[in-house]
Amino acid sequence: MTFLEEFNPKHLTLTVESPTFWRVTFNNPPINVIGLEMMRDLKALLTELENNKTVNVVVFDSADPDFYIAHYDVTVDNELAEALPKATDYTAWVDITVRMSKLDAVTVAAIRGITRGAGSELVLAMDMRFASLEKTKLAQVEIALNAVTGGGASGRLPSLVGRGRTMEILLGAEDFDGALAEKYGYVNRALPDAELDEFVSRFARRVSGWDHQAIVEVKEFINKYTRLPDGEYPLHSDAYWAAVSNPEVGATVERLLEKGMQERGPLEYDLATKIGAIAQQR
Amino acid sequence: MTFLEEFNPKHLTLTVESPTFWRVTFNNPPINVIGLEMMRDLKALLTELENNKTVNVVVFDSADPDFYIAHYDVTVDNELAEALPKATDYTAWVDITVRMSKLDAVTVAAIRGITRGAGSELVLAMDMRFASLEKTKLAQVEIALNAVTGGGASGRLPSLVGRGRTMEILLGAEDFDGALAEKYGYVNRALPDAELDEFVSRFARRVSGWDHQAIVEVKEFINKYTRLPDGEYPLHSDAYWAAVSNPEVGATVERLLEKGMQERGPLEYDLATKIGAIAQQR
Amino acid sequence: MTFLEEFNPKHLTLTVESPTFWRVTFNNPPINVIGLEMMRDLKALLTELENNKTVNVVVFDSADPDFYIAHYDVTVDNELAEALPKATDYTAWVDITVRMSKLDAVTVAAIRGITRGAGSELVLAMDMRFASLEKTKLAQVEIALNAVTGGGASGRLPSLVGRGRTMEILLGAEDFDGALAEKYGYVNRALPDAELDEFVSRFARRVSGWDHQAIVEVKEFINKYTRLPDGEYPLHSDAYWAAVSNPEVGATVERLLEKGMQERGPLEYDLATKIGAIAQQR
Name one GO molecular function term (chains A, B, C) (predicted). Predict the structure, then answer.
């Protein structure tokens, strides 16, 4: 059986636009958190793409116009996550972000909706990001849980937005809308929401027509000059898990869940604004 | 006696907005030059912050709406400056900028008014910069004195504005207003003057609420990927002092002082434009 | 004989605006490709500038308002190109771009018109770039020839536009107009076409007045923090020549020439859009 016959993802959809252009659509209602099944799906996809010499470009979009990826599923059982098949020695999530950042295929995020925490880290691990001007909210809110970003944001933002704006994004933990994300370089460009899909599809179709080996070589040089050594990323993960294993953080997460975290409601729509007050309610 | 009881600064004011949020206001009339007393004040503040495990954020603003920090006081007696207490082996000014760039607390410049030379270097050594859209003039004018920037601008600008714009800022020695400074990444954002104070205060209050240790860890990773090794900065300082020790530069400084440098008048308001012609008047 | 008496360029003009400010105007009708003679001219100019201790700034503009530099002349005889005098062990074109990026004089591109492929690489090797808002089209189209950029674009773009936008420029191979090039940092600034010349001339006159040694020292520090080691660039060149030596690429170039490449006509005006379809017409 080929990969396409075999692949049966639970929380994303794979659309073969052409042999050289694939589309992945995140789809984990109610708000597209990154949970166990989505990680399993992503890891299987990454394994295929690591061996596939045909696919030139993969677009990642969302089935939910309000939530691109809300964040990591805080209810995931860590042992199950770590038991998922992996291709590196890294923790489950870093295994995904590091591998994503090293694929031969060009990875393009088409961001519409809320994209916080691990969602932001996932798009930062892709090669480029296009965002809806009206409907984007990008944020790294980990510091509200007393933690650094565990999947590499502090390693990837500096080469996109520079030192001062990286400080602001990670220490401010606020939402960045499309216009500000573009101004800072957090995304390549913000496009009017009505134009985003056609823009990204046209761009991806164009890239899908190039020679596969040429794409690999172009990316190799850029990666050589812009990627940190892989070994940096486990350090982030270790620091993150050390911080959130503190019982006080566990209590914060409990309070957040009671107030509607991971549900399609006001807390998640406005999480960056509200998380601070809830976290500091001791 | 605690630091707060003991600290009696001459050319700046320290306001304790809360135990975790301090505000430093530069105040050295007539135009906020960085002189001996302000350096003494800054060094005492840095020493405290290097040991303080409570303060999460320090905002630096100015008591003078026209001059944030005009520049280094060209009349400072070097021997006295070097005799000030220091925590590094570096020259007096580099001791300040390097230590500023390494604090645990988040350092935020709220820039309103003229910020040239060492003033620009000081804000570049902070973690982030917000500026008045209408009232900001940022510049590095050292090349008019035949010199490189002595306090690290050429080491810090590249990670904010990239190679080409660093070249333009340091070789053009022109004023950058708020809009252009934002476009280049010289500041994080330029805000309408009427909104600047509230924006920065709100941001700082938010950051002041996070866990101290989490802030330290976030900054540690960002610093690891965006700071040059400390040892680079003495090289800048040596090159600066070698250049300005030339008698021709001394004569230029004399001419500038005769024409109103360090006074609240037309030369200082428009120094970047006028310094070239005066420097080249031989 | 002095250099100025001896220098008799074929495809560019040298104007001595002052002893410290030179202007180079590309002039190789019909569309300013970089051919054998222009490379010979540039190498002679670089040799002079490498030894000249007076010239502080060199502006590079174009005699053709529509084409700044169309691209490399695809009909150049490689053996003749490599036989041109060179100052490095690198291939003919890399010899030019690496040396351009290391001059004592400040190099300023005044971009008006189409600037693709090696044209874009040449301006990326300069210290800064100012562009006509209305008349600029910057692009790296090499991937349409199954190739990486041979003259260093993938090494120089990251420090200007960051990782994500470098990916987009090199993998999308599309035209960037002045506004988008400014937004990304591909150029320092885009100026209204009517203001470009005066802006650049004024800036260059200003820089031309500084102390030569101070310029050298400022550039030395910036270069130290923003230039890749020279040894990276031959790798790009090797990968480029390996790719284009493929007979399939030769056939593509033949088709492009038949359809009007290197002529002043619709294909060259719109090369970035059209090259993909022609390249993929097998």
Answer: catalytic activity
Rg from Cα positions in chain C: 18
Instruction: Give the whole-angstrom CA distance, residue A225 versus residue C157.
Output: 10
pLDDT of the residue at C213: 98
Kindly list the distances between the CA atom of residue C192 and the CA atoms of B14, C23, C269, in Å, as whole numbers in the listed order: 46, 21, 20
H helix or E strand, kind and range, residue A108: strand A106-116
Find the Cα–Cα–Cα–Cα dihedral C58, C60, C63, C65, rounded to 10°.
-140
Return the domain boundaries, chain A: 3-196+206-279
Q: Which of B156, B207, B214 sits opposite A172 (nearest CB)?
A: B207
Chain C residues with CB under 8 Å of a chain A CB are 143-144, 146-149, 154-155, 158, 161-168, 170-174, 183, 228, 232, 235-236, 239, 243, 276, 280
With the C-alpha atoms ordered B76, B77, B82, B84, is the resulting torsion angle positive or negative?
A: negative
Q: Domain C3-196+206-279 is of which CATH architecture?
A: Alpha-Beta Complex (3.90)
- Which alpha helices (H) appear in chain C, and where do they start and end? 3-6, 36-51, 78-83, 92-100, 118-125, 153-156, 158-172, 178-184, 193-208, 212-226, 232-244, 247-258, 266-269, 271-279
Q: What is the pLDDT of residue A282?
A: 59
Query: Would you state the pLDDT for residue B281?
Result: 76
Residue A45 to residue A43: CA distance in whole angstroms: 5
Q: How many CA atoms lie within 13 A of A8 on its CB side?
A: 3
CA–CA distances in Å: residue B155 to residues A228, B60, B94, B236, C23: 20, 21, 12, 9, 30
Q: Model-level pTM?
A: 0.98
Task: Decide: C218 and B170 in contact? Cβ < 8 Å.
Answer: yes
Q: What's the rounded Cα separation, in Å, for the pair A10 and B164?
A: 47
Contact A173 B206 (CB under 8 A): yes
**Which letter does DSSP use for residue C157 in this model?**
S
Cα→Cα distances B72→B120, B181, C16, Å: 10, 21, 37
The one-digit pLDDT tens for each residue of chain B (282 residues) are: 899 999 999 999 999 999 999 999 999 999 999 999 999 999 999 999 999 999 999 999 999 999 999 999 999 999 999 999 999 999 999 999 999 999 999 999 999 999 999 999 999 999 999 999 999 999 999 999 999 999 999 999 999 999 999 999 999 999 999 999 999 999 999 999 999 999 999 999 999 999 999 999 999 999 999 999 999 999 999 999 999 999 999 999 999 999 999 999 999 999 999 998 898 875
Question: What percent of chain A is modeled with pLDDT above 90?
Answer: 98
Return phi, psi of residue C155, to 5°: -90, -25
Q: Which two tokens stand for residue B22?
A: 């301090």
Which of A147, A174, A235 is the closest to B214 by Cβ?
A147
CB nearest B206 (choices: A172, A235, A239): A172
Nearest to B177 by CA among B245, B86, B87, B112: B112
A18-60: pLDDT as tens digits = 999 999 999 999 999 999 999 999 999 999 999 999 999 999 9
- Note the pLDDT tens digit of each residue in C9-42: 999 999 999 999 999 999 999 999 999 999 999 9
Contact residues for B272 (Cβ-Cβ < 8 A; gap 6+): B116, B137, B139, B141, B173, B174, B175
Cβ distance C147 to A82 under 8 Å?
Answer: no
Q: What is the dihedral of CA C77, C82, C84, C85, to 10 degrees?
A: 180
ipTM value for the complex? 0.98
Whole-number Å distance between alpha carbons of C271 and C282: 18
Rg (CA), chain A: 18
CB contact under 8 A, C185 and B171: no
**Cβ–Cβ under 8 Å, residues A193 and A137:** no
CB contact under 8 A, B172 and C203: yes
| Minimal C-alpha gap between A59 and chain C (Å) | 13
